[in-house]
Design goal:
Blueprint lengths: L17 H11 L2 H6 L4 E2 L10 E6 L9 E2 L5 H6 L3 H21 L6 E6 L19 H16 L9 E7 L12 E2 L3 H17 L5 E4 L3 E2 L2 E2 L5 H4 L10 E2 L5 H7 L7 H11 L12 H12 L5 H17 L15 H13 L2 E5 L11 E4 L14 E2 L5 H9 L4 E4 L3 E6 L5 E3 L32 E3 L5 E5 L5 E4 L5 E4 L5 E5 L11 E6 L2 E6 L4 E6 L2 E4 L11 E8 L1 H10 L3 E7 L19 H13 L3 E6 L13 E5 L6 H10 L33 H4 L17 E11 L2 E10 L5 E11 L10 E10 L4 E9 L5 E3 L4 E3 L3 E8 L5 E9 L9 H4 L1 E2 L5 E3 L1 E5 L6 E5 L4 E10 L4 E10 L2 E6 L5 E4 L12 E9 L2 E9 L2 E9 L1
Parallel strand pairs: 2-4, 3-13, 4-5, 5-7, 6-8, 7-10, 12-14, 12-27, 27-28, 28-29
Antiparallel strand pairs: 1-2, 8-9, 11-29, 15-18, 15-26, 16-17, 18-19, 20-21, 22-23, 23-24, 23-26, 24-25, 30-31, 31-34, 32-33, 32-37, 35-36, 37-38, 39-49, 40-43, 41-42, 43-48, 44-47, 44-49, 45-46, 45-48
Helix pairs in contact: 1-11, 4-5, 4-12, 5-6, 8-9, 9-10, 12-16, 13-16, 14-15
């Protein structure tokens, strides 16, 4: 007699709604099992047949960290395509490769941490390459397309589950885990939240990752905005995954909480559902959660909410139904798509007719990136590669293309008169470290199987590149970079600079009659020992280092000049190495090209005025475009970037990329890196009042386009706009039609112009297309700080259609109905301190550790707040303030002969211990109000009575 088959538990029943299945599974899990689920590496529950699960698979522009995969252009390059259909297809290809790679390697996760929707507010941000645009609408459009591709098109199951990075207002690597972004309510709602909101509302997002930084004095990992904003935008359960190590930062670096139990509980209650901390070791997080439970800081219901969100994602991925997709990997379609994306990302910034190159042109391609296919921290390992040089060889033939890299060729002479010598490597075919994939590539060690450098009478010639600020790389003749492994020896062992701590960079520092060669990864000088060249021992001073004489065999500019002189056209390929001077953990300090590359550009231009500058970089540069007949830019284009650039230069493809961010002309145009007030500091194309080097949305073509017939009407809650675009040129080409708006009679500062919509079109010569947009009236609204809500202001709005934010071809005006401005009802409600109209010298901080804002003078100095149109009704006679700390508050009503001055009699016990102070103040009617703050005082609220 056979035993009866046990009934299928409801959580395994695919006919039930996901919510009921999650309920059933939750009821079967023990408290310990639920606690274990809170770490990034959730263990299996064998008694229920539940597999282990890992949150987090990097997939920013291809599957990263898991070995070979298709590498698409960097995210900023995808943003430059302005093409949602293309980016959706890229997302589909990436998600297919995730599934295919997981089929052979279970370490590959289906919860992908991508895309990055941080706005490219400041071009010196080290992670500029990871974002799409400085504009929230363009960012959300591209991010939505990518997430839809990642999600897949199955009606129930998701191919992958995308998590947006990094919540919120995160644009600095400098002090990134301790710096606070001061974000006023208008900037918060109109700028930083908007890109996240519109992407989440589109319905293909599984969650978000909080950023390392603080916003308004409070760490993002305990942000009330997760509850107040994020979770209100969708009915789906959203999974919030911490950034790596950030939970521990709440205590260790930020000192926001005294104990890890407090910090973990606060993060969990705020909405963090999965803790990425201590690598694969979950024991510390589990212990902290248990401790928080024992101390009464958490309840089991708090854990249930987080585990439910994680399980919701796992059900959507089909885990409990045996759902899987075979995926696809390195297919011809994916290779073609990588080339298409790289071609569409190329932006032609200037062209005086030298491009496209003539079919019989003799081309000199020169520069440090001319024969490079650079990867970044979030790239996969290349399956295929193309460099600009290889692309031009393929297109024009090796006999018509000359090459000069432009490195300085040097030898390093010791005090003893010998030279550094690179021994030949017998086993150099070995794979680069990490090529096989690693969950944490920061832990990959350098090679120790190759011989260290020695010295001899003649030495080895090295290729020296100065990447800016004296940061050097040194490369041997066989292409291997000098690097330092854990044993401290200097070897020619690296295929490229890379790693979390780059071990291939050095600095030559003047010392005595020569230079110390300081290894930047360890901070130690290089010395010559009997058993080889190594860095000095830890703790040694500079006297332990060898003093070298730099012997220059050839300057890079001399080689460039020779190649340029004999060419019809010179293409200088300049830009950055994504692992050096501008990357995660390191912001840039200037918009300028490094001096080494400026030297090469000057040498090429002096030898041949027909010099084209092709910038291949993760961010904008300030260059002297006036002196050049043509300038192009592309982000690092992935595996097909070199071929794509060559095809654009040759005219096989007409360029149609558009700048996703403003290119400023000079460092002086930039606000401080940590100034997040895009309105007050007049940042991005939205508010910048200077003359940019190249404006947002800019990009030229080998064709020309005519715009005509702009019409606009208001109906059904939208503005309906249409116009025509005609290709008046001689080649088939793409045009990116852009529509902007500007409030003509605003009551508060509004953008100079603001992108409403765009469309990328392909038109044959003479072909005309009608472009139509339906723009909801909500797109014209702004955040009214006087009343704490969105408001559409009535009045005229200019509609501007054209080829960039500054190249406006057509304009029209529509008059919109809306809600007129109303004064602040301060008599009834008082004033929240952070709801100012204008400020100087202040920053927003946390009112409490849980919620709310306060305002304080920056660095304990003095500051001023202005609140316009305050309605005091028939009159007030007293003002009260809620303050903490020590200092003075001065309140003055416009046209009033007196001011109220308030100050605590003694400093409050702590920054969150508020006291209420009162003073006489007489006012009636509607007037502006000024508040002046002095000292280390926090102002939370101003009230009026009488």
């Amino acid at each position: 007699m056979t035993a009866p088959t046990p009934p299928t538990p409801p959580f395994r029943d695919p006919h039930l709604p996901f919510g009921k299945r999650v309920d059933d599974l939750m009821s079967r899990l023990t408290l310990d099992e639920k606690t274990a689920f809170l770490h990034q590496f959730a263990p299996a529950v064998e008694r229920l047949g539940i597999a282990a699960f890992r949150t987090g698979q990097e997939a920013l522009h291809g599957v990263a960290w898991m070995g070979p995969a298709t590498v698409f252009p960097q995210a900023v390059g995808l943003g430059a395509t302005w093409n949602e259909d293309l980016v959706r297809r890229v997302g589909e290809a990436v998600s297919q490769e995730v599934r295919a790679m997981r089929a052979r390697d279970e370490r590959v996760g289906l919860n992908v941490w991508s895309p990055t929707v941080n706005l490219l507010r400041h071009p010196l941000w080290g992670r500029n390459e990871e974002g799409y645009s400085e504009d929230p609408r363009l960012t959300s459009a591209i991010a939505t397309a990518y997430t839809r591709g990642l999600r897949g098109d199955h009606p129930a199951y998701w191919r992958t589950a995308p998590v947006l990075k990094h919540w919120l207002a995160h644009n600095n690597e400098t002090d990134r885990d301790t710096a606070s972004s001061s974000v006023r309510p208008r900037v918060l709602n109109e700028y930083d939240l908007r890109a996240f909101r519109e992407t989440v509302e589109a319905g293909a997002v599984a969650g978000v990752m909080p950023a390392y930084n603080l916003v308004n004095g409070r760490p993002n990992h305990v942000s009330p905005y997760l509850r107040e904003h994020l979770r209100t935008w969708t009915e789906e359960e959203l999974l919030v995954c911490s950034d790596a190590g950030a939970p521990s930062n709440l205590v260790d670096s930020e000192h926001y909480f005294d104990t890890h139990e407090e910090a973990t509980a606060a993060a969990l209650r705020a909405g963090v559902d999965s803790f990425t901390d201590h690598g694969t070791d979950s024991s510390k997080i589990v212990a902290r959660v248990r401790g928080a439970l024992e101390q009464g800081l958490l309840t089991e219901a708090d854990l249930d909410a987080a585990v439910r969100r994680q399980l919701s994602v796992r059900f959507r991925l089909g885990e409990f139904d045996g759902y899987d997709e075979p995926g696809a990997f390195d297919t011809p379609e994916h290779r073609a798509l990588a080339l298409e994306a790289a071609e569409q990302a190329v932006v032609l910034l200037k062209n005086d007719g030298v491009l496209p190159l003539a079919p019989d042109a003799r081309v000199a391609v020169v520069g440090l990136l001319a024969d490079e296919c650079k990867l970044d921290w979030y790239s996969g390992t290349l399956l295929h590669r193309s460099t600009p040089l290889e692309g031009l060889y393929e297109r024009f033939g090796t006999d018509r293309v000359d090459f000069a890299e432009g490195v300085d060729r040097v030898r390093l002479k010791t005090a003893a008169g010998t030279f550094l010598h690179v021994l030949p490597a017998e086993d150099s075919p070995g794979d680069a470290p990490g090529a096989e994939g690693a969950l944490d590539p920061a832990l990959i060690a350098g090679r120790t199987d190759l011989p260290p450098l020695t010295t001899d009478a003649t030495g080895s010639e090295l290729a020296l590149v100065d990447w800016g600020e004296g940061v050097l790389t040194l490369r041997a003749d066989d292409g291997r970079y000098l690097s330092v492994a854990e044993d401290g020896y200097v070897r020619a062992s690296a295929d490229q600079p890379g790693g979390w701590v780059v071990q291939e960079t050095f600095r030559l520092e003047p010392h005595g009659n020569g230079h110390l060669l300081r290894h930047l990864g360890t901070g130690r000088p290089v010395r010559v020992a009997a058993d080889g060249v190594k860095v000095a021992a830890e703790g040694s001073d500079d006297t332990a280092g060898e003093v070298f004489e730099l012997v220059v065999a050839e300057r890079g500019e001399d080689a460039v000049a020779r190649a340029a002189a004999g060419a019809d056209v010179v293409v200088v390929v300049a830009g950055n190495d994504p692992h050096i001077n501008g990357r995660e953990t390191e912001d840039r300090t200037t918009l300028r090209l490094p001096d080494h590359q400026e030297r090469l550009l000057r040498a090429a231009r002096a030898a041949n005025p027909r010099t084209v500058l092709a910038l291949v970089s993760a961010y904008p540069y300030a260059v002297d475009a006036e002196a050049l007949p043509a300038v192009l830019w592309t982000a690092h284009g992935g595996q097909a970037g070199g071929t794509a650039l060559a095809r654009v230069l040759a005219g096989d493809v007409s360029p149609a990329g558009r700048l996703p961010q403003t290119w400023y002309a000079d460092d002086a145009d930039l606000p401080p890196l940590l100034d997040y007030d895009v309105i007050g500091a007049r940042q991005t194309y939205l508010y910048f009042e200077g003359t940019p080097l190249f404006p947002f949305g800019h990009g030229l073509s080998y064709a020309s386009f005519a715009y005509a017939g702009l019409s606009a009407r208001v109906a059904d809650g939208s503005v309906h706009v249409s116009f025509t675009v005609t290709n008046t040129g001689g080649v088939t080409a793409d045009e990116v039609a852009q529509l902007y708006a500007r409030a003509e009679e605003p009551s508060v500062p509004r953008p100079r112009r603001e992108l409403l919509a765009h469309r990328r079109l392909t038109l044959a010569p003479g072909e005309r297309a009608e472009v139509s947009f339906q723009v909801p009236l909500s797109a014209f609204a702004f955040w009214d700080v006087a009343h704490g809500r969105w408001r559409l202001e009535p009045g005229p709005y200019a509609l501007l259609a054209g080829a960039s934010s500054e190249d406006v071809r057509l304009s029209a005006t529509v008059v919109l109905d809306g809600e007129p401005a109303a004064p602040r009802p301060v008599h009834e409600r008082g004033l929240a301190a952070a709801d100012f109209d204008e400020q100087s010298g202040t920053e927003i901080v946390d009112r409490t550790k849980v919620a709310g804002d306060a305002v304080t003078p920056a660095a304990g100095g003095s500051g001023e707040l202005l609140y316009r149109s305050c309605d005091f009704g028939t009159g007030v006679t007293e003002v009260t303030v809620a303050v903490a700390g020590e200092g003075t508050v001065e309140i003055e009503v416009a046209w009033s002969p007196s001011a109220a001055v308030l100050s605590p009699k003694a400093p409050t016990r702590g920054p969150y211990d508020y006291v209420e102070l009162g003073a006489a103040l007489t006012a009636e009617g509607v007037h502006d109000l000024t508040v002046r703050l002095r000292g280390s005082l926090r102002l939370a609220h101003v009230g009026f009575s009488g």
